[in-house]
Amino acid sequence: MSHVSAVVRPPLVTGGKSYHDITEDVCRQVEGKPTASWKIVFGISTIVLLLGTASVFWTWWDGLGNWGLNKTVGWAWDITNFVWWVGIGHAGTLISAILLLFRQKWRTSVNRAAEAMTIFAVICAASFILMHAGRAWLAYWCIPFPNTYGSIWVNFNSPLVWDVFAISTYFSVSCLFWYVGLIPDLATIRDRAKNKVSKYIYGLLSMGWNGNTKTWFRYEYVSLILAGISTPLVLSVHTIVSFDFATSVIPGWHTTIFPPYFVAGAIFSGFAMVNNLLLIIRWTFKLQDYITIEHIETMNKIITVTGSIVGIAYITEFFIAAYSGVEYESYAFINRAFGPYWWAYWAMMSCNVITPQFFWVRSIRRSITWTFALSVVVNIGMWFERFVIIVTSLHRDYIPSSWAMFSPTIIDIGDYVFTFGLFFFLFLLFAKYLPVINMAEVKGVMKSSSERFPYKVKPNTKKPGEHVTE
Amino acid sequence: MENTTKRYWRGIEELRNDPEFVKNAHREFADSSDITDGGGTYRRDFLKMLGFGVAAVSLAACEAPVRKVIPYLNKPVDVEPGIANWYASTFTDGGEYCSVLVKTREGRPIKIEGNPQSSISQGGVGTRVHASVLSLYDNEKLRDPQKGGKKVEWTALDKEVAAGLASAQNIRIISGTILSPTTKAVIEAFKAKYPSTVHVSYDANSAYGLTQVHGGQLPAFDFSKAKVIVSLDADFLGTWIAPDEFSKQWAAGRKLSSAKGGNKEMSRHYDFSTLMTLTGANADYRGRLKPSQSGLVASTLLRLVGGSSSTADVKIEFLEKAAKDLKAAAPGTTLVVSGSNDPNVQVVVAEINRILGNYGTTIAGTSNYKQGNDAAFDGFVNDLKGGRVDAVLFYGANPVYDSPRGKEIADALSRTKLSVSFADRADETASLCQFIAPDSHYLESWGDAEPKPGFYSIVQPTISTIFNTRQAQSSLLTWAGQNADYYEFLTQNWATNILKTASKEAWNKAVYEGVFEPAKGTVAAAPAVTGDLITALGKVSGTYKASSTVMEFIPYEKVGMGTGSQANNPWLQEFPDPISKATWDNYAAISQATAKKLGVHQNDMVKLEIAGKEAIELPVLIQPGQTNDTVSVAIGYGRSKAGKAADGVGKNVFPWINSVGAEIKVTPTGSQYKWGIGQTQTHNTVMARESVLQETILAKYQENVQAGRFIPKIQTSEGAKDATDITLWNGHEKKNHSWGMVIDLNLCTGCGSCVVSCQAENNVPVVGRKEVVMRREMHWIRIDRYYSSVQPKEGESIFQELETLEIASDNPEVVFQPMLCQHCSNAPCETVCPVLATTHSNEGMNQMTYNRCIGTRYCANNCPYKVRRFNWFKYFDEDRFPYNFNNDLGKMVINPEVTVRSRGVMEKCSFCVQRIQATKLAAKRERRRPYANEVQVACSQSCSTGAIIFGDMNNPESEISQVLAVEQQGRAFHMLEEINVLPQISYLTKIRNKDAADSQAPHKEEEHKENEHKHPKSHV
After folding, report:
1. From the list A64, A136, A155, which residue is nearest B835 (CB)?
2. Is residue B150 part of a domain?
3. Tens digit of pLDDT for each residue in B98-110?
4. Contacts A–B by Cβ distance under 8 A
5. Contacts of B873 in chain A (CB under 8 A)
């Protein structure tokens, strides 16, 4: 992975780190005892998860009538949350696959956490697929399997079946990619482990990694192949999710612009989520030298690009609605902006179209506080985008007699909270017990992109996290 | 193959017939010892044991529900399990009448259909008649006779009541209208034994004013002969006297045909009313008036048609126009009806009809529907209060609840020595009586009815009494010391007075047909009019005012609930009112302008006060079309002792029923109605969507049968094409049948009897008010009701225009559009279901496989018509839905041919596929094709006006094919044609008999051309 970069590029690793420093900095929190702050946050996540689980249990036990849905609005928070979580997952794959192929070295510090985020986000998304089915216990019927029900097959015309394939492929490839990337680092932890249990567990997980050239060679190749497989997935998964809407006949859903618009939106929200998570990790685990302002800035640039694509898509939708002359289509869009759910629409517009434009200002996109705040706003906006698409299209479609309003119930909220609990529960476990930065790959870019040549350095006298301004 | 004697042996042993071989010949394997484990346990046995063990353990873990299925020890004659039996019978409830056919399965009545033999109801069935089968299985009915609220034996009750009667001096029988001549004979027999008996009838919703001026008789009307109809506060299509009968007559004058030489004339209907009623909604012209003006409207009309009237004139929109049309029509071809209960007004109306020559043509003969005598009833209440009544028997009457002086009766009832009610439950009156001798339901009883003089019909039992009840007639006969067998009494009475023959055949024929009617063509004489016009006009002048500024009250009856006698029927409670679309409530309905004036909104609670009456609090419902400064509240609600479904639903306004036009004070309480009023439709206008609703006026239709049609075109590189010419799909073959439907928007009055019929046929669950508020009602067919919008002004932007279109105009035109699954040939629901739970049949139907459904709801989302219904909860068996499905008795109404849907699955109209299959099966067994119009679905069968035609579009002889053959180039349209889903249901345009200048519908053709740049309606 080492190749020559222009000298003018800012370093990707600061602080004059040596190879050993990297190992030390990353392994520190894996090997140490859980910190008090981790315990507190993990405790909160567990409580949230338990409360959410109670809500999900009640949804399954008592019926979907506990949600605010009705005869007209058959999907609302469930599918909004599903698409939102799937969208968030996209950043991980984009970073690990496309940026790998494009040889973007800065991805090495962020890809591990981003991939973990992807996997957990997809799990959260999948929970809504199961939850939203009226008879969730039969959801496996969506999978084509040989059966004795009179040879009933799935409906290959249905975008929901495509979804099943898309999401499950995406999930398995993401898991594989993530795990393969973890192996060298797991071996490092194994080698450093002092107690038997850790040695055994990390030994098992690292699958006999011995670090010889051939192993490294295979590792690089597998990564490349998986990147090749994942790359189309980055585009296909959200394209297929968008087909749920695009192939329907409902005004506001039935639009050909959805695939690119959804993919851009997914990357947009995914990067915002990565920003949020990394800023927290960077601070709590004191990894400022690896996840630098340069990283943050680069991701903010991507947010601006994808956010602008999304903005243009919004405007294009409006234009097409007017230009097509289809009265239902026109009405759907006028209703979005000026109907009963106008607030959701304008929340979406301001969060998604205006927010990323702030990043044109250098000081804002390099500001930790601004980045964090605006990333949160972006994810709120993207949630509203899905809400607007799903609910405002359904609630007033063709036949005015059936027009209805949707308002969420406490269980709607509880089920959404469940996925937050689940996500942070899993993510915190990951952050504690697995290396949050890909040590091996960061070491790989040290020669070209570190602030200092990584050999023959004096013993590091600086405290970790302190910036070097030589 | 050729015959051959060749034989193959399994081996040389077989050829030799070895004894060893013969011994083992039956075994599959020659020697199985080598495949066992040698321990004596065979592999197969092991697997069997293992399988059994697993099954046994898992079975033991499941709690198998205990369901009692008891086979017939001796199979009753005529009862074949799985095959329905039909019996002709008659529904009566007070003056309500319908000749019916009752479908029974294994001895359970499960469905009511109309009896086409009856020349009166002619196969039409109203909502309450449909729902009456559920009232049979009402879990709250009394199981036994009662004394002072405790169970008692019939013999003990008979003894005590007879003793009480013997010692009584002034006996009163209080009843509603009794249509049965034999019941009247029973009462006569009773009177013979107890000569002090006086029989007093009253009607909860009285028409005494009308009968009074016709010599105590209710005139019979014939709307079919009327070219101009004027209704003055008479909701004859919804609730007035005999709405199903009148609807049929009315529809006869409204049926159009686009064929060359087909009928292109229709009656013109004016309605002048305070309320937006079904009649007002279906009228071509509607004028609004305040209740305090109603008498003067009649007298003004009288003057306008040429009568002498000296009263003050009132200005009502379209009144002069109505008078002009009345005068212009040939004598005897018009009809003016008034719903007023003021005899003076009825005298004026009678005079109008006399001048127009309607007596003898459109008003001919009499009918028995309303026999109540308000004066006699008042006398009874006074006697009761004065302690001048010793014994009182309530038969088919609940005056404590449904009479204006109910409270007085309740207080005075204890002064009688003996009080008996025949009610089926301890209702408001019965619970105050000493004895309740529960009457059987009409489906458990013998009886008869005479809706019009000479027209008889028979009530025959379709099930033996479910509880320990006894027909009221038998009770009366017992107490009169006669033979208590009412069946015998009935047959004797028929033999002597009705059939006038003792022949068993004649009786059997009458029972079989359900009706016994005079020969066709018997002309009834015009009823006599009594009452002095001059006096009446004087009184009208004194009572009514030409204009008033005060807030006025008007009570009304709802189409579903009626007078509340069947209030504990969940089907009726959940039946959406055809106009307001509200379920489970009555409410204070006010117009938009009045709401603005009072500063109240929908669901705000208001206190209603009328001087001298107890105040009530009700939620507000905004009702477009109601006269400003009036408040209307429906009767029939506010029951307190009817049962779970009815008690506490709404408020009782019977005490106010005579306060029509009284000044009412409306004060907002500042609180909101919890959850709100459950309406099945909350958006009232069609938003100028021409592909949803297509209408025009008669004059334009006469010029061009396609007037009002919206024909979408799609621009392509080869020019404009029909929307249905471009498709992605291959279509479905319909080689055998192609089931379809035509719905005539011009004939549909919106009455909604199809909704209840469908509910009964298809086991549609009742979900309760909260779920309706959540917009989750389950009805498979609904009637969309649209008000015409305020017309957007010139130069409004599209945003303003859309906002304006959302507002119903003050006096809107109304359209009813029955909506059910359209059975699209390119069904959007079918493509999106991941598990193929909804598929297309080869007969053009969109089918739902409940067992396969996993409940993603994608199909419902993708349905452009929003006709799919989801089981959000286990509606059929949960305590929080304590309606008919919640108890074993209520479950007896379930149609065994239709699956009861479980939680989490989607459902929708199936085109009554069970009926189609049954008919096909019957035809197959008889080795023939189904006849042209053999299959009737629940909605089409129940439609009084024939607005719904169902049939096989592949059979050229079927009615639907014949209609479509004509109308496809005329009025027929597919809803949302441009999305090319190709529904199997066609609608026929709504035609109003209106002058172009008065029409509120957008003048499509002209406007379209002018504004093409502004409203491009075609796809590009």
Report:
1. A155
2. no
3. 999 999 998 899 9
4. 175
5. 62-63, 65
Q: What is the CATH number of the domain that holds B733?
A: 3.30.70.20
Question: Are both B724 and B855 inside the same structural domain?
Answer: yes
* pLDDT tens-digit series, residues A420-434: 999 999 999 998 889
The yes or no reply on domain A19-144+153-448 and CATH 1.20.1630.10 is yes
Residue B69 forms part of a structural domain:
no
One domain, residues B665 and B804: no
CA of A47, closest CA in chain B: separation in Å? 29
Note whether A302 and A356 are within 8 A (CB).
no
User: Which residues 48-87 in chain A show a CB within 8 A of chain B?
Assistant: 62-65, 68-72, 74-75
**Which CATH number characterizes residue B352's domain?**
3.40.228.10
Q: Search chain A and give the residue with CA nearest B865.
A: A399
B584 and B707 inside one domain: no
Total domains in chain B come to 4
Instruction: At B371, list the tokens.
Output: 């026999």
* Domain finish residue from B64, B79, B114: B64
Whether residues B707 and B673 share a domain: the answer is no
Arithmetic mean of pLDDT, A273-295: 86
Q: Do B903 and A63 touch (CB under 8 A)?
A: yes
| Inside any domain, residue B70 | no
Query: B786 and B914, same structural domain?
Result: yes
Instruction: Indicate if B729 and B673 belong to the same structural domain.
Output: no
Task: Calculate what percentage of chain B has a pLDDT beyond 70.
Answer: 94
Contacts of B797 in chain A (CB under 8 A): none
Least CA distance to A326: which residue of chain B? B1019
Residues on chain B touching A70 (C-beta within 8 angstroms): 774-776
User: Hey, is the C-beta of A399 within 8 angstroms of any chain B C-beta?
Assistant: yes
Q: Is A248 on the interface with B (CB under 8 A)?
A: yes
Closest residue in chain B to residue A62, using alpha carbons only = B873
Q: Among B629, B649, B679, where does a domain finish?
A: B679
What pLDDT, in 10s, does the model give residues B669-711? 999 999 999 999 999 999 888 899 999 999 999 999 998 899 8
Interface test with B, best of A249, A254, A395, A412 (most B CBs within 10 A): A249
Structure pTM?
0.88
> What pLDDT is stored for residue A224 in this prediction?
87
B850 domain-assigned: yes
Based on the domain organization, do B958 and B846 belong to the same domain?
A: yes
CB contact A130 to B (< 8 Å): no
Query: Which residues partner with B758 through β-bridges?
Result: none
Which chain B positions have a beta carbon within 8 Å of A164's beta carbon?
834
pLDDT score of B1018: 42
Domain edges within chain A: 19-144+153-448
CA distance A92 to chain B (A): 29
* B782 and B815 assigned to the same domain: yes
Which range of residues forms the domain containing residue B569? 549-679
